[in-house]
Amino acid sequence: MGSMASCARWTEVVSPDLIRVVYLDGQVHEFPAPISANRVLQNHPHHFICNARDLYGARCPPLQPEEELQLGELYFLLPLLALQSAENLVALAARLYSAARKEATRAAQRRRGVWTK
């Protein structure tokens, strides 16, 4: 599998002036910098955050709680159980990346004044 960093559509889901976190239900939350992983994890005790660029590898290193999320990056908020299987991580990554792309498309359409359901 290729890295999402090499994917031409990566720019569709990232924004240079925001931090985007995709939740398991497909919702995309946007945050201004600075924000720590711990702050995002506050209401999600059995979860971890990883950079979307790292998720397609066999391993997905969770961010440390004190680590700051970086502008222009896409992150996933995932249950700790997902760390038990690389296959689960890859499947989740594909699903969440798709959700992020759809949300980015809807946001772009809203900015242009085109409304979709």
Q: How many beta strands in the DSSP annotation?
A: 4
Alpha carbon gyration radius: 14 Å
What are the low-pLDDT stretches, counting only 5+ consecutive residues below 50?
1-10
The percent range for helix content is 25-40%
- Strand line-up of the largest beta sheet: 2-1-4-3
Q: Work out the strand percent.
A: 15-25%
Order of helices and strands: HEEHEEH
Q: Categorize the overall geometry.
A: globular
What characterizes the major β-sheet? 4 strands, mixed
> Mean pLDDT across all residues, rounded?
78
SS-based structural class? alpha+beta
* Number of continuous helical runs: 3
Q: Ends: how far apart?
A: 32 Å
Question: What descriptors fit this protein?
Answer:
single chain; alpha+beta; 16% strand; disordered N terminus; 3 helices; 4 strands; 117 residues
Can you describe this structure?
By secondary structure, the protein is an alpha+beta fold. It has helices at residues 10-13, 37-41, 86-112, and strands spanning 19-22, 28-31, 47-51, 74-79. Strands 2-1-4-3 form a four-stranded mixed sheet. The longest helix has 27 residues, at 86-112.
Write the layout of secondary structure elements.
Layout: H1 10-13, E1 19-22, E2 28-31, H2 37-41, E3 47-51, E4 74-79, H3 86-112
Parallel strand pairs: 1-4
Antiparallel strand pairs: 1-2, 3-4
Concise summary:
With 117 residues, this protein is α+β, with helices and mostly antiparallel strands. The protein has three helices and four strands.
